[in-house]
């Protein structure tokens, strides 16, 4: 978004930086802090909230910031924001209520907390950048309804696949093609991975083992593609998507016959993924063009003869682009990617044989993985969203690879996420 850099430069020249608060101090948070503080003129990260304060301080220190104040009241946080002193707190709701913050970045990956933060930020009329795909892919549509009511932006982030995909999707649409498939290019997909199998990878890259497991076992890509579907009006062709595996390194533009043409051309288009293709880990959008004159030009410009034209972005740079999303929201009221409807869900599926009485663990752990399913089917079949599975108690044995239903579990009590799911169903489906 080239316009954003000029607008940020102007804020910098005027001495009126955008002020941001961030909730979470993990792997992504560190990258975001460095990116805002060292590479984004016109924006300041004013405060970080985390359960463990030392991690929030470490994140500021990674961004070469010292002299950080620990705060636990709204008044002291407001003073820090006003004076330009960096602050940390273990109370995330202070950030939502604070004066002088333009936007909140939510980067925990925790679903229940993500719901509470989003609601509080919106209630306090702050734009919310929801890097937490797990929450967005579960209750994003209804959170967007709340945000619209308060006149603030609810958005996922540039940099992660949904944001990169939507930028490409908007480009493809803008030049006159009809997008018919939004896809992710993955290097690995194995639903049975768990934090033990992914321990080495996590250690090598200094990441959380459960988080990287969610990338390998298909849960994260399912959240990403649900978010993309809910923003574009697309659907999945079948439960779990096609997700073909191709010869390692084969270019994605040579893989178009992996997807049945009718799935793309009949209906609103589909979200899907491919494993092994290049350029990875990028994204691609397939579009169609009817106009014979423009088809002639597309062929001349080496995009092919159709009927499918393949556009791609060779990378997704996760945290690098998050400040761009903040600026788009604050300065232009433009969401990188926001839900317009509730069309696709991520449903919980047994990773292994599970016994009655078991309390389900979290996303990217040992017990469940996610599959995309169209929401009309997930509602009709009473399927359990993956974002709700943690803490549920199984009423009976569930065999490996069976999709769970609400009838299989006892839900934890008094969760905001359950209330939001009910509201979402009523709002979009009744
Ligand atoms: N790691 C990646 O490569 C990557 C890439 C793109 C998007 N994301 C998304 O970014 C988010 C964060 O990922 P990460 O890799 O930084 O995770 P992480 O595990 O490294 O960090 C998560 C942070 O959130 C805090 N947190 C988690 N659960 C919490 C809870 N219940 N209450 C309070 N605080 C809690 C943790 O203390 C930690 O500071 C996730 O939504 C993930 O899907 C991650
Ligand atoms: N979705 C990423 C992880 C971080 O977005 C992946 O491709 O595995």
UniProtKB/TrEMBL annotation:
The enzyme's main class, written as a single word, is oxidoreductase
Q: What's one GO MF term for it?
A: homoserine dehydrogenase activity
UniProt xrefs under SUPFAM superfamilies = NAD(P)-binding Rossmann-fold domains (SSF51735)
Q: Name one matching Pfam family.
A: DRL_cat
Q: Which InterPro entries match?
A: DRL_cat, NAD(P)-bd_dom_sf, SAF
Record-linked CDD domains: SAF_DH_OX_like
**E.C. number, please?**
1.1.1.3
**Limits of the SAF domain:** 345-410
Give the protein's recorded name.
Homoserine dehydrogenase
């Amino acid at each position: 978004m080239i316009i954003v850099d000029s607008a940020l430069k102007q804020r910098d020249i005027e001495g009126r930086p955008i002020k941001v608060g961030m909730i979470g101090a993990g792997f992504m948070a560190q990258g975001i802090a460095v990116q805002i503080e060292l590479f984004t003129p016109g924006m300041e990260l004013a405060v970080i909230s985390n359960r463990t304060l030392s991690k929030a301080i470490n994140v500021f220190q990674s961004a070469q910031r010292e002299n950080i104040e620990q705060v636990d009241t709204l008044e002291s946080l407001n003073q820090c924001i006003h004076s330009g002193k960096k602050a940390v707190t273990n109370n995330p709701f202070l950030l939502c209520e604070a004066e002088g913050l333009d936007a909140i970045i939510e980067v925990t990956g925790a679903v229940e907390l993500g719901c509470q933060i989003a609601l509080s930020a919106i209630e306090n009329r702050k734009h919310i950048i929801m890097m937490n795909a797990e929450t967005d892919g579960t209750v994003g549509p209804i959170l967007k309804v709340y945000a619209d009511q308060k006149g603030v932006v609810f958005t996922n982030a540039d940099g992660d696949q949904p944001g990169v995909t939507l930028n490409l999707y908007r480009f493809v649409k803008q030049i006159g093609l009809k997008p018919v498939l939004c896809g992710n290019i993955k290097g690995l997909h194995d639903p049975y991975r768990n934090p033990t199998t992914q321990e080495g990878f996590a250690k090598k890259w200094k990441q959380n083992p459960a988080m990287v497991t969610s990338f390998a076992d298909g849960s994260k890509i399912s959240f990403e593609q649900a978010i993309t579907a809910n923003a574009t009006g697309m659907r999945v062709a079948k439960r779990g998507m096609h997700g073909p595996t191709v010869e390692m390194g084969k270019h994605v533009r040579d893989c178009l016959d992996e997807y049945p043409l009718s799935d793309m051309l009949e209906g609103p288009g589909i979200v899907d993924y491919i494993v092994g293709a290049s350029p990875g880990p990028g994204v691609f959008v397939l579009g169609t063009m009817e106009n014979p004159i423009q088809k002639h030009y597309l062929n001349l410009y080496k995009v092919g003869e159709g009927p499918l034209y393949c556009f791609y972005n060779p990378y997704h740079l996760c945290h690098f682009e998050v400040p761009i999303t903040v600026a788009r929201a604050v300065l232009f009221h433009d969401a990188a990617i926001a839900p317009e409807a509730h069309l696709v869900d991520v449903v919980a599926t047994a990773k292994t044989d599970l016994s009655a009485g078991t309390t389900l663990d979290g996303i990217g752990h040992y017990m469940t993985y996610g599959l995309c399913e169209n929401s009309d089917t997930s509602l009709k079949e009473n399927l359990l969203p993956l974002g709700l599975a943690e803490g549920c108690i199984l009423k009976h044995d569930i065999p490996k690879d069976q999709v769970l239903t609400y009838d299989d579990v006892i839900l934890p009590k008094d969760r905001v996420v359950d209330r939001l799911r009910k509201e979402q169903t009523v709002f979009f489906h009744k």
